[in-house]
Amino acid sequence: MCQTSKMPKISENARQIVERIHEFEQRYERPAGSVTLLAVSKKQSPESIREAYGAGIRDYGENYLQEAEAKITFLQDLDVRWHFIGPIQSNKTRAIANLFHWVHSVDRLKIAQRLSEQRDRGLPPLNICIQVNLAAEGSKSGVSPAHAESLCVAVDALAGLKLRGLMAIPEPLDDFAAQRAQFHRLAELYRSIKPRVCCFDTLSMGMSGDFEAAIAEGSTMVRIGTALFGPRM
Ligand SMILES: *Cc1c(COP(=O)(O)O)cnc(C)c1O
């Protein structure tokens, strides 16, 4: 029987990625089920998201508010958790605070305060990860490792938010040991801050090219786009 080529591809990719995540949990002595797959659906169609949903994926990450608003409206019938993972402009915080379940890219207190104030009081607190810039230079977003702890303590005090952990987008590297070394730095920072905040349980690290190294170093959420959906539009 002849099948259209696209549908089985995303579900087949999803199956393989989930299998590899389980394999890496075992290999690196992580508890089974401790790593969540966050499907990064930026620049992917709503139809592709439906296919991934059909394969059992329930967490989706978006980088651009306008694009995400349209998809979230269109896919209202799906029971998914939406994660905002892109740079945040302060005039967009109200929409972000109320459309998403998680925000991974908070790197300054002013943005956190706005998200907290603008989150609808009828909704549960918005889950937050603080984005850390491991490179400590250049134009990338993220708080410096040196300032991460004080930012976490301040964000943890905001009523509309629930601080869950740290996120980073390290430099893409090919060498496995070098990838691990970068993730190790974030994991160390996470462990040093954990005693000072209430509900730290999330290390958002690892993408298509480096999620094995991230899981080896303690990632609890891998953000995977191209390996799941293929190239972006
Ligand atoms: C695009 C993006 C990803 C996914 O990257 P892939 O290499 O396609 O897996 C993960 N995290 C963030 C923050 C992104 O912007």
Model description:
By secondary structure, this protein is an alpha/beta fold. Helix content is 42%, strand content 16%. The chain has nine helices and eight strands. The protein has an eight-stranded parallel sheet with strand order 7-6-5-4-3-2-1-8. Helix 4 crosses helix 5 and helix 6 crosses helix 7. Bound molecules: pyridoxal-5'-phosphate. The site of pyridoxal-5'-phosphate has 13 residues, from strand 8 and helix 9.
List the helices and strands and how they pair.
Elements: H1 6-27, E1 36-40, H2 46-54, E2 59-62, H3 65-74, E3 81-84, H4 93-99, E4 102-106, H5 109-118, E5 126-131, H6 145-156, E6 161-167, H7 176-193, E7 202-204, H8 211-216, E8 221-224, H9 226-229
Parallel strand pairs: 1-2, 1-8, 2-3, 3-4, 4-5, 5-6, 6-7
Pyridoxal-5'-phosphate is lined by residues 40, 42, 63, 85, 169, 207-209, 223-227.
Main attributes of the structure:
233 residues; alpha/beta; 8 strands; globular; binds pyridoxal-5'-phosphate
Strand order of the largest sheet: 7-6-5-4-3-2-1-8
Biggest sheet architecture: 8 strands, parallel
Task: Give the total of beta strands.
Answer: 8
The structure class reads: alpha/beta
Distance between the termini: 29 Å
Q: What does the oligomeric state look like here?
A: single chain
Structure annotation, total helices: 9
- SSE topology string: HEHEHEHEHEHEHEHEH
Short précis:
The chain is of the alpha/beta class and 233 residues long.
